[in-house]
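DATA SHEET
Item: assembly model
Revision: 1
Owner: S.N.
Input lines:
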Amino acid sequence: MISNTIVNTIFILLASVFLYQTKDLNYLSAIFPQIISVVVISLCTISIVTSARKKEEQSAVKIKREDLLYIIIIIVLSFLWVYLMDWVFGFAVGSIIFMTIISLIVGGKNLKFKQLVGNIITFSIITIAFWYLLAKLLIVPLPRGLLF
Amino acid sequence: MASLQYLLKAIPQILSAKIFFLMIGGVGVGLVIGALPGMSATMGVALFLPLTYWMTPAESLVFLGSLYMAAIFGGSFSAILLRTPGTPSNIGTTFDGYPMAKQGKGWEAILIATYSSLYGGLFGMICFLIFAPMLARIALRFGPPEYFWLGIFGLTVISSLSRGNTLKGFIGGFIGMMISFVGVAPIGGNVRFTFGSAHLISGFGLIPALVGLFCIPEVINMIVQRGQKQLFLEAKVEKGTMLRTFVEVMKRQIDLLRASVIGFIIGVLPGAGGNIANLVSYSEAMRASKHPEKFGTGIPEGVIATEASNNATVGGGFVPLMTLGVPGTPVDAILYGALLIQGLRPGAELFTTRADVVYTFIVGVIAATLVMVPLGLLFGRGMTKIVYKIPIHVLVPVILLLTMIGSYCVQNNISDVYTMLILGVLGYVLRRFGFEAGPITLGLILGPIAETGFTQALLMGRRLDYPWAIFFIRPISWVLIALSVLFLLWPLIRRQSPSVGVDRK
Amino acid sequence: MKKAVLMMCLAIFVFSTLLGANFPTKPITYVICFDPGGESDITARIQQPYLEKILGVPIVITYKPGGGGATGWSELVNRAVPDGYSIYGTNLPHIILQPIQGGVPYKTEQIENIYFFQTTPCTLVVPIDSPIKTFEDFVKFASGKKSVLVGGSGQPTANSFATLRLAKVAKLNLTYVPFTGTGTAIPGLLGGNVDALMTYTTVSIQYKDKLRTLAVATEQRVPFLPDVPTFRELGYDVVEKAFRGVAVPPGTPAEIKRILEAAFAEVNKNPEVRTKMEELGFVLEDYNEAEAKELVARLIPYYKELWVETQKMGK
């Protein structure tokens, strides 16, 4: 199968990069990664060879294009959430904002206004509860951003 | 018997209002922390440690011990309901627990997990009381070559973990090991494979990886199912399920015993804990079973195997801590610090000099294991209802928040959150190509153990004429090598004996 | 953007500190760059109540572990606000070695240590039931052997360097076996996997019923180990210890540094602190900012050389 070959080739490349990088390391840091890299390269080669020989059974169901779009949007939003939480909004405000946005996107048309308000209240309660527990009781330095 | 006398003295201590209250508090906190995806037992104990500095030694230990025991149990809730191991000790619970939940039997799975945890937890603590000094001596025989072989033996578990394609399972396991190489080399001290990123110096943490690899793909699946109202429907719960399940679980004495013994022994070894024990126990249950092909489809044996073993490691881990003063697991390392700060020195003499503290602690943790059942059932029932009832558009953001908090709090570091998200996306892609999260995480866990053992053993080998011979001249190593070979070849052996042979597709 | 934000904060805080010369007026955060329950945490917890009494404000201890302290020290240099309200625990040789090894986003010179208050000298230990009773016995045992295994915590650390140095000056074939910490090194020794441990005074004290300390790598004998000779007394020039101190973010006003420096000096003078620290095996030291700077400058070339030597080992 082509996908199998591609994934295994990527692994072989990765292991080769690791193997190449060990040249700058001292013996004790290098020896074990070298062995495992070689093992990975050989196993992946075996996998490519055997899968080329026999017809593989069809793997998981295909994702629809629309679903893929949703997945990508939410993942991008998650990264944005972390970034803005760290540099701009701080933990509490950032989380409430992004949880609401993600909830809106996932809920889509099914989401009624009343529900949305309910969701925002729920998210706020959860976030603030965590904020209080972590920042105030357990003195964990949470991301502060610019606001507080 | 002097210890019995101390034990009896400790019981009224536990019943004193303050300690009892702290124990319940510890169990409650532990359950919640364990059940939240991404909050592990280690993190829970570390987070709450500073709060215990003003307590007396006995209070502090009972609180942290109860928290520890309950967190290991609570981790099964999210493993069952969300396919996300709450702690690394619950990885195997996702294999059969989640399919059960999908079939609407989430509550039943939680009941099984509860009773198995109770059994394993009590078994571990009682074995700790009886066998501690003897076992500590055996644990000391475990040197670097043995740790290397333990790592290899652990990998053989993959041959039973990965359904369908064993080769892919092993590739996944070794890729996990490669991920564990990133950062500072444990023995050589070089900074390696960071590709110039300062974030990666501390490497890929186990918790961010665990949360990412297991939880993010589930979140993505939820997004795909966003049209539905809820994640899955709950089957009707019949009356008397609680009692019936209890009887059913207790009938499986052999399964429970096997899992608990494995958990206890692995717990005793410094450096190995519930994260390995639950997977080894799962694979052993499969090997012993008459119908191994049913594992992974949602059968009680799978949940019993992992949940009894991981709670048994708690008692096992106390063995080196309390007899040698050597912390065997990360949680025990924090407990060691807790003892020191209280002005106590962990070790065998603690049993004589501060017997009151030690036995109050032991009795306290045993009591916590018992208290864990009603509290856990209450909490588990609530969580089941919530997960079955909550609409997906609420579940997705809340779970994302939890994954972020979980990976952040390991080191109070935002870069761990990025790591978690990146590994999550990667994990989803790999899962679609048939590389499951289980073997990858196992590789990540075993990588440092195997590498440390391997490199140290090579240094030890300098005493010999042929340094590499060190791996093959020690009796415990022989046992581990034999077991590894046997387990690796097990699928072949099984196929050849027609009596137990099950034709695999 | 990050820089602009930082500059702004800096400007605000410098301004406000110039206006209100009295420091401190709000809680001070004491960041520990290791896990809770570790030696750094324990030390800070002992200091905490006395610091609070002297400075008159609460001291809040938080944790920023990771990368053997590197995560916390990177934050200290790159993100922390230089207003004196966040102080970070630092360790030698860590803050010298990590930049030498490379990959960390801070330089040793950027860390403004205001006080080194404590050291843990290296000690050579064997199991209590070992036939090796003194360091002379150890030399006798080791001389002529193909390889004698000496365990210790990590590499490169004070332990690994002390072993390296001892092998050189005593002309012994010592192989240093790094363990991931004292928690794994001690079972390694008790189980007979290594012949001896190069470890710290804290271990010598905390495990004194299981381990015998043969020698200590200090200039003078350590007060709580009066019977243990120093390597120097025995004729081997091995002095190696790990320091623990406290630093402020670069750019912290000098008068604030003086106040904090004085506070830590006063804590160290307290007899209760002394007893508590010595019971755990810590040696109290006093290096104020100038002395600390001089110490670090002196140690940098020394550790660079040792690191190069370490790289050559192993093969």
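QC remark: The mean pLDDT of chain C is 89.
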